């Protein structure tokens, strides 16, 4: 007498489990907010609204009501602060430091380029004036040599030479002053150039360190779907959080990872469009295959 009873219990248990796993194909999965850590810097209402946005991604592209927020239900979505978010905070601080270095670098580089342009313009003018001075000096010296060969200059010629000599001296004084100004500008330019190089080196080091520590493509370990609940551990920004939740909701629907790097259900967060997340054909196919495979069997069991 026990054997039929045992067989009947096993059969009913199997059907019950089967129904629980696959009823979401036509009945919305209800969820509630579980643990919520304020250290993430968002409110519980904001967290709830982001979950709704993530569920809308699935419902919009599938064309079906898949999730419902229902306080008190067993399925929980939690926000849990641990070392992963601490690392994210460090990464964001690193980004801020890099941005500050970049701003400083670009400011000094801008000064350098402006100073260089002024220096080059002034240097060209100096070379032009120096060339004129050299030509006039040659003319003056030739006149002096010519008059000396003739035995000397007349008073009128001497006055003309004196006038030319004073003009040449004034021109040389201006050239000396311009040369000193150019040398000072060159020293300033070299100083700015050294600063540009130092800041560029500092910026490159900061970027390299950041990329080594924080720059790798991330597997979806920011969250997990386990034992009938979703735990979120880490996100960089709201758009990042929305994608993580959408990914874990996919697991809650019973979907595994797919191969398209742009898919929500791809195992890496890398090439998805965070600003406009949407299901790919691979995401839709995974859902369709899951439900098309199971629903007819369930209907057959209950008909």
TrEMBL record:
Peptidase M10 metallopeptidase domain residues are 71-288
An individual GO BP term: proteolysis
Q: Which residues form a coiled coil?
A: 130-188
In terms of SUPFAM superfamilies, this protein maps to: Metalloproteases ('zincins'), catalytic domain
Is Transferase tagged as a keyword? no
Q: Does the keyword Endoplasmic reticulum apply?
A: no
Q: Which GO terms describe its cellular component?
A: extracellular matrix
Q: Which UniProt keywords apply?
A: Coiled coil, Hydrolase, Metal-binding, Protease, Zinc
Cross-referenced Pfam families, in alphabetical order?
Answer: Peptidase_M10 (PF00413)
Concerning Gene3D superfamilies, the annotation shows: Collagenase (Catalytic Domain)
The GO molecular function terms of this record are: metalloendopeptidase activity; zinc ion binding
This protein's name: Peptidase M10 metallopeptidase domain-containing protein
Species of the source: Candidatus Yanofskybacteria bacterium RIFCSPHIGHO2_01_FULL_41_53
């Amino acid at each position: 007498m026990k054997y039929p009873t045992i067989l009947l219990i096993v059969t009913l248990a199997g059907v019950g489990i089967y129904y629980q796993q696959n009823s979401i194909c036509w009945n919305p999965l209800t969820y509630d907010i579980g643990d919520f850590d304020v250290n993430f810097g968002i409110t519980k209402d904001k967290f709830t609204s982001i979950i709704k946005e993530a569920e809308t991604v699935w419902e919009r592209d599938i064309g079906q009501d898949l999730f419902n927020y229902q306080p008190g239900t067993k399925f929980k979505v939690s926000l849990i602060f641990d070392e992963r978010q601490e690392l994210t905070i460090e990464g964001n601080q690193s980004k801020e430091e890099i941005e500050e270095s970049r701003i400083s670098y670009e400011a000094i580089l801008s000064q350098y380029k402006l100073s260089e342009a002024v220096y080059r313009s002034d240097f060209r003018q100096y070379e032009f004036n120096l060339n004129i001075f050299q030509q006039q000096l040659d003319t003056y010296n030739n006149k002096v040599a010519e008059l000396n060969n003739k035995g000397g200059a007349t008073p009128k010629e001497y006055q003309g030479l004196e006038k030319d000599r004073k003009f040449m001296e004034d021109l040389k004084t201006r050239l000396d002053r311009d040369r000193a100004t150019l040398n000072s500008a060159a020293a300033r330019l070299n100083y700015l150039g050294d600063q540009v190089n130092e800041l560029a080196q500092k910026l490159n080091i900061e970027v390299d360190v950041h990329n080594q520590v924080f720059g790798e493509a991330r597997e979806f370990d920011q969250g997990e779907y386990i034992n009938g609940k979703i735990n979120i551990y880490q996100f960089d920004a709201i758009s990042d959080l929305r994608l993580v939740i959408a990914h874990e909701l996919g697991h809650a629907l019973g979907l595994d990872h797919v191969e398209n790097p742009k898919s929500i259900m791809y195992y890496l967060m890398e090439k998805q469009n965070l600003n406009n997340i949407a299901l790919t054909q691979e995401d839709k196919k995974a859902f369709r295959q899951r439900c098309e495979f199971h629903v007819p069997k369930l209907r057959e069991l209950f008909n």
